[in-house]
Design a protein that fits this description.
Layout: H1 11-16, E1 56-58, E2 65-66, E3 93-98, E4 104-108, H2 136-167, E5 176-181, H3 187-196, H4 203-212, E6 237-242, H5 247-255, E7 263-267, H6 274-284, H7 290-296, E8 325-329, H8 336-356, H9 362-367, H10 371-384, H11 391-403, H12 411-418, H13 428-431, H14 455-462, E9 471-474, E10 484-487, H15 490-502
Parallel strand pairs: 2-3
Antiparallel strand pairs: 1-4, 3-4, 5-6, 7-8, 9-10
Length: 507
C-alpha cells in the first residue's frame, strides 16, 4: 500500500521525530473498532516506533501463532476484515483465517520480509500507522549539522577567495600613472584615490588590509576585522605608480616616499623698487611674463594688510613685498599671481612679528605715524644705510627732523622721484623737483615707500637709536667702508662733508 503524505506541525517535530503524522493517519482520528470488525479485541495501544511490515503468507511453524478468534476458522473474502495494527505485537504471528482451499493465512511482523500487501486489506483502514525508526531524529540532526558546517566552510572559502583577489593583482602591471597625495590627506582619502585611479582593486579592502598589516604580512581574517588597529600614514607628494598593482606593491612604493620635488630659487634683494622687482623676476624665471606680473600687481586681493587705503593702485605693492630668497616648486614656476601673493604674505608675517617684538618706539606715537608710514621710513633707511650699525642712527635722524618739521633732504628719495638709477648723478633740476617723493623739496615723508625694506631696516625704523643728530654724511667713519658720520650742529656737518668730498663720495 502506498504511503500517504505527511504534514509536520513544527521544525522541532521534524528534527526530533516527535508527532507530525499525516492527518490521514492520526491515531486520534482512528475510529474505535466495532464488535463487528474485531470482536473481543483488546484496547488499542500506542504503536511502537518500529515500522511493521504486513505480510500475507501461508501459515508457518517458525513463529508463535496468536489466534485472532477461536470462533473464526475460515477466511471468507466477503465477510473478512482487515486487521488493525495494534493487535499485532512485534515478532508475533496473528492467525487471519483459512481460505476455501483450507490454507491458513496469517499477518506476520517480519522486518526482513518483502512487503506483500494482503489483497483483502481495506485501503480505507485509518488504523494503519507507519512507524519511524527510533534513531530518525538524531540522524536528521547529524545531517543538518553537517550541512551547516559545509555551507559555512563554502561561504568562508568564497569570501576569502574574493578578498585574496582584491589584495593580489590579476595579470601584469599596467601603465605608469602619476599619483599625488595632497597635504592633509587621510589614509581613507589615499585608499579611495588609489581605487578611483584603478591602481588597486578595492579601496575599502585596502583600508582594512592596512589596519591589519603586521607580522602576518597583512593577511586579513574575517573575525580579525574589528581587532585590527594598526595606523598607517603616507607622506604628501608626487608618486609614480602603475595600474593594477597589488596592495603590497603599492605600500612598498608609497613607503619609499614621494619623488623629490624640483625647486627653483629666486632671490629678491633688499632695496629694489617695484619696477626693479618685476625686471628681476623675469630675468630669474623665464616662465614669468611681464604682462601677467603687472596683472598680479593690479590684484587688490593680494595687497598687504598694512597698506594705506589712499595709495593709488599702481603703487600698492611698493615696499610691501618682502625681499628674500624664495624656492618655487617646478609646478608653480609659471604662476605669477601665486608668487606675488607669497611675497606679500611673507611681508605681513615678518612685519607683524616685529610690531609685536620689539614693537614701536615712543617717538613713532609722538609723531602720530601709522604702521604703513613706519614702512616708508624703513625704505628710506634701506636705501641710505651701508652698514648694519648705521640703520638705527639714520632712523633717529629722520625722526628728529620730522619732529623739527624740517626737510629730510634724502637723496635716495630724489632718485626715486625722478626715476633715475643711483649710478647716474643728480642734477640741480632733480633736486628742485617738486614731486611728493622728493624730500629735498617737500617737508615730511614720501606718500609711499621708495623701495623694499629688509627686516633689519624695518626693525631699525621701529626702534631707532637714542641721540640728537640731525645729519649723517658718508665718511667711512672709523676706517669702516660705508660708515657715516652723524652730526648735530652745522659745523659738525661741514667737517663731515669735507671728508666726504676728499673721499670722492660727495660732489
Amino acid at each position: 500500500m502506498a504511503e500517504k503524505s505527511r504534514s509536520w506541525r513544527s521544525f522541532s517535530d521534524f528534527i526530533t521525530g516527535e508527532g507530525g503524522e499525516s492527518e490521514d493517519f492520526s491515531l486520534s482520528d482512528q475510529p474505535e473498532p466495532t464488535p463487528e470488525q474485531a470482536p473481543d479485541l483488546p484496547a488499542p495501544r500506542r504503536p511502537s516506533r518500529r515500522r511493521p511490515t504486513r505480510v500475507a503468507m501461508p501459515v508457518s511453524n517458525s513463529a508463535p501463532v496468536v489466534p485472532l478468534d477461536p470462533g473464526i476458522s475460515t477466511l471468507d473474502p466477503e465477510s473478512s476484515v482487515a486487521l488493525p495494527d495494534h493487535i499485532a505485537p512485534p515478532g508475533a504471528v496473528v492467525v487471519a483465517g483459512v481460505d476455501a482451499n483450507g490454507v491458513e493465512y496469517v499477518f506476520e511482523d517480519d522486518p526482513t520480509a518483502d512487503p506483500l500487501v494482503d489483497p483483502r486489506y481495506d485501503v480505507n483502514d485509518r488504523n494503519w500507522v507507519r512507524y519511524r525508526n527510533s534513531w530518525g531524529g538524531f540522524f536528521r540532526i547529524v545531517i543538518l549539522i553537517v550541512l551547516v558546517i559545509f555551507a559555512t566552510l563554502w561561504v568562508r572559502g568564497k569570501i576569502y577567495g574574493w578578498i585574496d583577489n582584491q589584495i593580489e593583482r590579476s595579470g601584469a602591471l599596467g601603465e605608469e600613472i602619476d599619483f599625488n597625495i595632497p597635504n592633509g590627506a587621510s589614509t581613507n582619502d589615499v585608499a579611495s584615490s588609489l581605487a578611483s585611479n584603478d591602481i588597486i582593486n578595492n579601496g575599502t579592502v585596502f583600508r582594512y588590509w592596512l589596519r591589519c598589516e603586521g607580522d602576518v604580512d597583512g593577511r586579513i581574517t574575517i573575525t580579525g576585522f574589528l581587532g585590527c588597529d594598526a595606523e598607517r600614514t603616507f607622506n604628501a607628494g608626487d608618486y609614480v605608480l602603475n595600474l593594477n598593482m597589488s596592495f603590497r606593491e603599492v605600500v612598498d612604493k608609497l613607503d619609499e616616499g614621494p619623488i623629490p620635488e624640483i625647486v627653483f630659487d629666486i632671490t629678491i634683494p633688499e632695496g629694489l623698487r617695484l619696477t626693479e622687482i618685476i625686471d628681476r623676476l623675469i630675468a630669474e624665471n623665464d616662465r614669468f611674463s611681464r604682462e601677467d606680473l603687472e596683472s598680479a600687481f593690479s590684484d587688490e586681493s593680494l595687497v598687504s594688510r598694512y597698506l594705506d587705503p589712499d595709495v593709488p593702485g599702481l603703487l600698492w605693492f611698493e615696499g610691501t613685498l618682502f625681499p628674500a630668497t624664495y624656492d618655487i616648486p617646478e609646478s608653480d614656476r609659471g604662476n605669477e599671481r601665486k608668487f606675488v601673493d607669497r611675497m606679500s604674505n611673507t611681508f605681513d608675517q615678518r612685519y607683524g612679528s616685529l610690531l609685536d617684538d620689539p614693537g614701536r618706539a615712543s617717538v613713532i606715537d609722538e609723531l602720530g605715524l601709522t604702521d604703513y608710514q613706519v614702512v616708508i621710513v624703513a625704505s628710506l633707511i634701506e636705501e641710505e644705510a651701508k652698514i648694519e650699525a648705521d640703520r638705527p642712527k639714520i632712523a633717529r635722524v629722520i625722526y628728529n627732523r620730522l619732529l623739527a618739521d624740517e626737510k629730510l633732504g634724502i637723496d635716495a628719495s630724489t632718485y626715486y622721484a625722478v626715476g633715475k638709477p643711483f649710478t647716474v648723478p643728480l642734477l640741480q633740476s632733480d633736486l628742485d623737483n617738486e614731486s611728493l617723493w622728493n624730500t629735498r623739496a617737500v617737508v615730511g615723508l614720501p606718500p609711499t615707500p621708495i623701495a623694499a625694506p629688509g627686516e633689519k631696516s624695518l626693525e631699525a625704523a621701529l626702534q631707532p637709536s637714542t641721540g640728537d643728530w640731525f645729519y649723517y654724511v658718508l665718511t667711512d667713519e672709523g676706517g669702516q667702508a660705508g660708515a657715516h658720520t652723524f652730526a648735530t650742529t652745522d659745523s659738525e656737518r661741514a667737517e663731515a662733508l669735507q671728508v666726504c668730498v676728499d673721499l670722492g663720495y660727495c660732489g
